């Protein structure tokens, strides 16, 4: 608001400069004594310098305010998303968060401030004119309304329609470009690069057609605004000429005030077009923020990628018992149940292995335990109390299917759960997870989503990270994926030994030595098909026994060859 | 500060646009002068209590023409900007895919996605705003100066002396801010990547209780962005301040002596008014261009990034020496002293019809070997030969059409499941797609999707579990094998995400399909290794024959 006030002062200084100069000249034409002009001469010079200086201060204040809002907004958007746990597609998210949030800054700078300025300038100049000649004030007010309200509204309406149409096409283009760029390997290998490129080209052509139309409509409205200042000035001049008793000098002054005032509000038409472009962004940001937010304390940021800083304390440091009663869950509303009325008792320190065909609900079960998948029915009780799923991370976590490797150094990726651990401990954890590394590897930067890490390495990096900050209930989703069986058993054994007393839930479809587990759960179609100890299940006819045999190399070989 | 990137001028569309902009700039300058002169006549007559009808008509005519010119140049600008942006977008994507998947790995894909999205859009401000304004900044002052000189040479001297100060100061300040602006764009680009990274890893951050800590990081990053921007702006606006001061003080410098000379009687009111109305017009366009300079720089930076991608020298163009493409059915695949990434001087041969398993520790180079066969990666030393033809000389598209590849982490597209399976064979009938899916054990779960094979997946295959994605990728390979019976099969741990039962079934199917074909299998699990005739161990940069009896 302060910025708008400063900006209005700046514009009024400009109007005043022209008006004073006009008075000076018109009065001088009457050949008065020089002394009569001296005040005007000083005023002209003061206004000239004042205007430039004011402009500078005003722009800095305005931008700083807008950037502060932007910083707050980025933080709130992130905080809201981190609290809400909504998962959105990648390319879309990037485009939206960067451009929607930047859009708010633009809206402030280019729309909100100029609108405030226009109101202040209009009030001041119309009031000034009215003091001399009310009829001329009416003409000026008409010109101001036309240039500052009618045309901007028209421009907004035209551009909003175009922006609405553009948004969908733009999203389509972004999705196509993400497929071309992120799916390059798959496209190349299957000779589909050309098709994907053609699709992206179609989308960019469509986008070009729409933006072209929007630009044309915008310039038409802009053209209507071009004649308004001069015509308003002419109108004021004609009225002033015929006004009886008006000092002739004021004819020039009022005409030029009208010209300068209307010119000062002309940028509003452009601002309205801009606002229409931004409307979708503003609405999306507003809708997103309505979901709530959570601010935070302060900490050290290194290179903006990762952190050194506090980890939210685990509420429960003592033993944790979890009990699932008749829990059902689904991935999406329109999908079948991924888990169907599951009961599971997890007293502290219990070790449970979950096996079964893919799609049986194994990862969903881990999601329910980790609190990322809300149960559709049934209860999850922690220490006999029903807990908010949002707080579950304090209790349960580990190597999960959506485990993420950040674009940061290996050290930063490892110390996510416990910042500031000595390198020796990190290397030990890596060794336990079956990833032999040299100290200098810790400084290696890993790619986006771990692109420069192989699949097995990635899984073991996640395991090492989980072992460095094990929650009371350690969830392990295929921690040894990509390892050969002997190494996998060794890593699993080491990992279990490294977390004595912790509850462990292991999901695996690899045949491992599961005799160390208190219970083995066989899931099929979201239900428990079999449950019991490894040794007992082996003797019981059913899926588990078949699976154990199927995994045996020799037996398997004889069935194939 | 370079107002026009010379590389932009190589685009014929942009050269034509510049001509149009200059023509309209000259016209606009003449109209500005005409309008101000006529308006001064009207006002001067008004002060004298008269009505100058001819001047009135002239004002109306001048503003009408200006409006018409505004529409015309707006249309041309919109058309050009839209077309240039589309051309540059297409060029970036074409170049990026031309360079291959290895070049795009890491963060580059994300950066380019930002560039073709937001980056290219930023060129609007430059093309439709700054460039025309810059031209006006040259034509209008000249026209105004000529008109003032004709009316009152003394005032023309003042304007003529102060006018050049504008570009001089602008250039001086521009030099100071240019590198900073470019740095800011990089920072912004990195911030985009940072956002993506933080959001992509949101679940992980939460599971470690770090999501809220990252809120602070995001805030600090945004604050840094503000700091960097404000540092740039303080300098950038300094130029605006100087321009504004020069302009307003010059108007004062013109107005005061004109007033004094009016008193002296050496000047008439109409002339004085013309000078007063025109003097600000001389400075206005240059100042407007200066105001748009900052916004336009982002567009110019983006343009520079685009040209850096589409014009920097690519790896030497491939000499397509081998006219006859090797047929995997009969061709020997030879690695001849190949050095690439972690591999050093690797040599081995895969005979036609032989199925070779690659085992060894993670990160040992197994996937690199497949990337070499796929032509994603050119060896830094040595050669990869297929049927005696050096892979660096064959038509890669043709060669890849003879490969069936199942990657470790397949990319699924924002399209239907059927389209995802049809990736390599867009014309395949639904029956063929279903056969392939059945072989990959994907048919069952696909039938269970709400739209079956026509279910549209989200971006990057959102909505499928990793095991399901893997089976879609397998189905792709099965479809390829169905179309190219002798395809060379490349499997990168295809069963890593499957449970033992479907793994056994998939392996049984695979065994059938790789029979009589050459195959390279990256494998850890004994079940997959068992399919192979031979096992190679990839470790410590070398490839060794695994001793007989030692599997994996």
Could you write a compact summary of the structure shown?
The complex is a heterodimer of chains A (561) and B (552). Chain A has 17 helices and twelve strands. Chain A is α/β, with parallel strands linked by helices.
Question: What labels would you give this structure?
Answer:
heterodimer, A: 561 residues, alpha/beta, six-stranded mixed beta sheet, 17 helices, elongated, B: 552 residues
In words, what does this structure look like?
The complex is a heterodimer of chains A (561) and B (552). Chain A has 561 residues and is of the alpha/beta class. Chain A has helices spanning 2-29, 38-84, 90-132, 134-182, 184-189, 193-225, 228-242, 248-265, 267-289, 362-370, 410-414, 423-432, 455-468, 485-498, 534-539, 543-550, 553-560, and strands at 300-302, 306-308, 322-329, 339-346, 351-355, 377-382, 385-386, 396-399, 473-477, 503-507, 519-524, 527-532. In chain A, the strands form three sheets. Chain A has a six-stranded mixed sheet, sandwiched between helices. Chain A has a four-stranded antiparallel sheet with strand order 4-3-6-7, covered by helices on one side. In chain A, helix 14 links the parallel strand 9 (473-477) and strand 10 (503-507). Residues 85-91, 293-311 and 551-561 of chain A have low confidence and may be disordered. The mean pLDDT of chain B is 81. Chain B is an alpha/beta fold. The longest helix of chain B is centred in the middle third of the chain and has 54 residues, at 211-264. At the A-B interface, helix 1, helix 2, helix 3, helix 4 and helix 5 of A face helix 1, helix 2, helix 4, helix 7 and helix 8 of B.
């Amino acid at each position: 608001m302060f910025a708008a006030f400063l900006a209005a002062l700046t514009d009024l200084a400009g109007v005043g400069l022209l008006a004073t100069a006009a008075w000076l000249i018109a009065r001088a034409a009457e050949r008065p004594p020089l002394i009569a002009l001296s005040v005007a001469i000083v005023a002209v010079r003061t206004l000239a310098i004042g205007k430039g200086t004011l402009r500078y201060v005003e722009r800095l204040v305005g931008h700083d305010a807008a950037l502060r809002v932007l910083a707050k907004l980025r933080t709130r958007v992130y905080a809201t998303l981190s609290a809400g746990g909504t998962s959105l597609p990648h390319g879309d998210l990037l485009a939206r968060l960067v451009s929607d949030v930047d859009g708010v800054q633009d809206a402030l700078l280019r729309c909100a401030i100029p609108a405030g300025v226009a109101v202040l300038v209009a009030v001041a100049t119309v009031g000034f004119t009215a003091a001399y000649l009310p009829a001329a004030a009416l003409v000026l007010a008409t010109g101001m309304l036309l240039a500052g309200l009618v045309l901007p509204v028209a421009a907004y309406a035209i551009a909003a329609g175009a922006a609405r149409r553009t948004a969908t096409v733009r999203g389509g283009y972004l999705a196509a470009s993400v497929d071309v760029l992120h799916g390059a390997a798959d496209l190349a290998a299957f000779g589909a690069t050309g098709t994907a490129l053609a699709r992206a080209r179609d989308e960019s052509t469509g986008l070009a057609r729409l933006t072209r139309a929007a630009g044309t409509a915008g310039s038409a409205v802009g053209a209507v605004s071009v004649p308004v200042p001069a015509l308003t000035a002419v109108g004021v001049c004609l009225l002033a000429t015929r006004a009886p008793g008006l000092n002739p000098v004021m004819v020039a002054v009022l005409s030029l005030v009208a010209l300068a005032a209307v010119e000062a509000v002309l940028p509003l038409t452009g601002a309205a077009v801009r606002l229409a472009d931004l409307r979708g962004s503003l609405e999306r940001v507003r809708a997103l923020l309505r979901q709530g937010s959570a601010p935070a304390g302060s900490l050290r940021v290194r290179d903006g990628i990762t952190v050194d800083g506090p980890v939210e304390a685990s509420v429960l440091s003592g033993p944790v018992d979890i009990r699932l009663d008749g829990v059902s869950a689904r991935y999406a509303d329109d999908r079948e149940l991924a888990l169907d009325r599951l009961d599971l008792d997890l007293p502290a320190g219990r070790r449970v292995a979950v096996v079964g065909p893919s799609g049986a609900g194994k990862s969903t079960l881990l999601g329910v335990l980790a609190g990322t998948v809300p149960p559709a029915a049934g209860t999850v009780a922690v220490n006999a109390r029903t807990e908010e799923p949002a707080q579950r991370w304090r209790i349960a976590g580990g190597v999960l299917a959506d485990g993420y490797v950040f674009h940061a150094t290996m050290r930063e990726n490892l110390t996510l759960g416990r910042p500031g651990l000595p390198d020796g401990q990190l290397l030990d954890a890596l060794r336990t997870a079956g990833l032999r590394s040299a100290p200098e590897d810790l400084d290696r930067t890993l790619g986006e989503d771990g692109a420069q890490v192989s699949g097995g390495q990635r899984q073991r990096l996640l395991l090492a990270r989980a072992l460095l900050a094990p929650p009371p209930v350690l969830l392990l989703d295929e921690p040894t994926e990509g390892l050969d069986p002997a190494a996998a058993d060794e890593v699993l054994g080491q990992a279990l030994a490294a977390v004595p007393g912790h509850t462990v839930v292991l999901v695996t479809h690899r045949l491992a030595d599961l005799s160390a587990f208190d219970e083995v759960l066989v899931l099929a179609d979201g239900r428990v098909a079999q449950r019991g100890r490894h040794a007992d299940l082996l003797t019981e006819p059913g899926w588990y026994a078949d699976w154990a045999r199927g995994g045996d190399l020799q037996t398997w070989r004889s069935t194939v060859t | 500060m370079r107002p026009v990137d010379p590389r932009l001028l190589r685009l014929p569309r942009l050269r034509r646009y510049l001509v149009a902009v200059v023509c309209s700039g000259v016209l606009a300058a003449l109209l500005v002068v005409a309008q101000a002169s006529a308006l001064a006549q009207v006002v001067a007559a008004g002060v004298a209590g008269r009505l100058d009808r001819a001047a009135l008509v002239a004002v109306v005519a001048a503003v009408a023409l200006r409006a018409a010119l505004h529409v015309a140049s707006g249309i041309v600008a919109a058309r050009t900007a839209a077309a240039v942006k589309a051309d540059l977008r297409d060029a970036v994507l074409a170049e990026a895919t031309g360079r291959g998947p290895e070049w795009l790995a890491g963060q580059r894909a994300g950066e380019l996605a930002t560039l073709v999205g937001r980056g290219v859009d930023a060129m609007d401000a430059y093309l439709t705003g700054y460039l025309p304004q810059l031209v006006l900044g040259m034509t209008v002052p000249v026209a105004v100066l000529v008109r003032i000189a004709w009316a009152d040479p003394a005032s023309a001297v003042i304007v003529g002396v102060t006018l050049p100060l504008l570009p001089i100061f602008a250039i001086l300040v521009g030099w100071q801010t240019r590198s900073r602006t470019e740095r800011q764009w990089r920072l912004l680009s990195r911030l985009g990547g940072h956002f993506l990274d933080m959001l992509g890893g949101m679940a992980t951050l939460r599971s470690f209780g770090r999501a809220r800590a990252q809120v602070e990081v995001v805030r600090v990053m945004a604050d840094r962005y503000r700091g960097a921007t404000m540092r740039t702006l303080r300098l950038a606006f300094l130029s605006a301040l100087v321009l504004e001061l020069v302009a307003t003080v010059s108007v004062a410098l013109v107005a005061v002596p004109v007033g004094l000379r009016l008193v002296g009687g050496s000047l008439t009111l109409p002339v004085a008014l013309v000078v007063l109305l025109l003097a600000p017009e001389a400075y206005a366009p240059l100042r407007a261009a200066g105001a748009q300079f900052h916004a336009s720089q982002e567009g110019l930076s983006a343009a520079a990034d685009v040209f850096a991608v589409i014009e920097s020298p690519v790896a030497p163009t491939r000499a397509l020496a081998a006219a006859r493409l090797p047929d995997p059915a009969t061709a020997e695949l030879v690695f001849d002293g190949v050095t690439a990434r972690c591999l050093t001087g690797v040599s081995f041969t895969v005979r036609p019809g032989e199925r070779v398993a690659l085992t060894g520790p993670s990160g040992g180079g197994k996937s690199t070997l497949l990337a070499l066969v796929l032509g994603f990666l050119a060896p830094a030393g040595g050669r990869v030969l297929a049927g005696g033809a050096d892979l660096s000389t064959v038509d890669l598209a043709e060669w890849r059409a003879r490969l069936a590849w199942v990657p470790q982490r397949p990319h699924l597209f924002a399209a239907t499941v059927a389209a995802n399976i049809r990736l390599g064979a867009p014309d395949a009938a639904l029956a063929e797609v279903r056969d392939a899916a059945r072989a990959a054990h994907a048919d069952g779960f696909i039938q269970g999707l709400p739209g079956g094979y026509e279910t549209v997946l989200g971006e990057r295959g959102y909505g499928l579990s990793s095991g399901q994605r893997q089976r879609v990728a397998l189905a792709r390979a099965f479809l390829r094998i169905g179309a190219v019976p002798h395809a060379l099969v490349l499997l990168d741990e295809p069963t890593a995400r499957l449970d033992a039962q479907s793994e056994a079934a998939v392996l049984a199917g695979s065994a059938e399909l790789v029979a009589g074909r050459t195959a390279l299998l990256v494998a850890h699990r004994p079940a997959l290794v068992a399919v192979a005739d031979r096992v190679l161990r990839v470790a410590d940069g070398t490839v060794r024959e695994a001793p007989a009896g030692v599997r994996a």
